Amino acid sequence: MASANRRQEILQAFAAMLEEAPGSRITTAAIARHVGVSEAALYRHFPSKAKMLEALIEFVEESLFPRIHRIAEQTPGADEQCRQILTLVLTFAERNPGFMRLLSGDVLQGETARLRSRVRELFDRLEAEIRQVLRNAESPGRLAPTNAANLLLAYAEGRIAQFVRSDFTAQPTEQFRHHWPALRVAVFGEET
Predict the structure, then answer these.
(1) How far is the C-alpha of 118 from the C-alpha of 28, rounded, in Å?
(2) CA-to-CA distance for 156 and 180, rounded, in angstroms?
(3) d(Cα 191, Cα 93) in Å, to the nearest integer?
(4) pLDDT (tens digit, 9 = 90+) per residue, 53-96?
(5) How far does Cα 11 stand from its chain's mean position?
(6) In this predicted model, what pLDDT tens digit does every residue of 96-137 receive, in sequence order?
(7) Treating both helix axes as pointing N-terminal to C-terminal, what angle do 113-135 and 78-95 enclose, rounded to 10 degrees?
(8) Is 186 within 8 Å of 179 (Cβ atoms)?
(9) SS3 state of residue 104
(10) Does the predicted TM-score (pTM) go above 0.85?
(11) Cα separation of 53 and 55, whole Å?
């Protein structure tokens, strides 16, 4: 149990450092100092910085996908499901800025292709979830599900990129309530 707690403590420290130091490279030595352990102790929990980054990606997946599935199962109407999924993703981004540096690729410079691929897979999976919601819709939308899902995900990715680029001042949810009606019309074709 102590090992699991230390592992979690390391990941929390790493995520906090990603948030506190936008644009800077974070070393394993700096993470170890932040946690208050030796680098050797850090490597007992994670054999590499890449494994720490991968664990952060897994945390994002474990945080988002079960909630997305609940939205799809419990919320009536594809338009409302899509709105809630985008709200979830944008709110998660807002509450976890350090993770967004990872997902935007900001901290992946010089990292392995496998990590960049993992982030791409996460976004591909998000798009697939939205596409499935649209395919399950009772009436077809204005756009084909593939095109509509891509549009909605591109919007979310754009808001996340603006958030990271602004050093976390341009909140991802800030304009969403104003943007959603236009997105809804583009995807579903009718105004409410």
Answers:
(1) 21
(2) 11
(3) 28
(4) 899 999 999 999 999 999 999 999 999 999 999 999 999 999 99
(5) 16
(6) 998 898 888 777 766 678 888 999 999 999 999 999 999 998
(7) 150
(8) no
(9) coil
(10) yes
(11) 5
User: Which pairs count as long-range contacts for 43-48, CB under 8 Å and 24+ apart, including other chains?
Assistant: 45/3, 45/6, 45/7, 45/10, 46/7, 46/10
CB burial of 145-171 (b: ≥16 within 10 Å; e: otherwise) equals: beebbeebbebbbebbbbbbeeebeeb
Question: Are 127 and 149 contacting, i.e. CB atoms less than 8 angstroms apart?
Answer: yes
Please choose, from the candidates 97, 100, 158, 154, the residue with its C-alpha nearest in 3D space to the C-alpha of residue 126: 154
What is the Cα–Cα distance from 183 to 167, expressed in whole angstroms? 26
Q: CA–CA separation, 80 vs 71, rounded Å?
A: 9
Pairwise CA distance, residues 100 & 162, whole Å: 10
Q: Are the CB atoms for 79 and 184 separated by under 8 Å?
A: yes
The one-character DSSP state at 139 is: S
Q: Which of 16, 156, 38 is nearest to 86 (CA)?
A: 156
* Alpha helices per DSSP H over 76-190: 78-95, 97-103, 113-135, 145-165, 176-188
As a whole number of Å, the end-to-end CA separation of the chain is: 52
Radius of gyration over every alpha carbon of the chain, rounded to an integer in angstroms: 18
Amino acid occupying residue 106: D
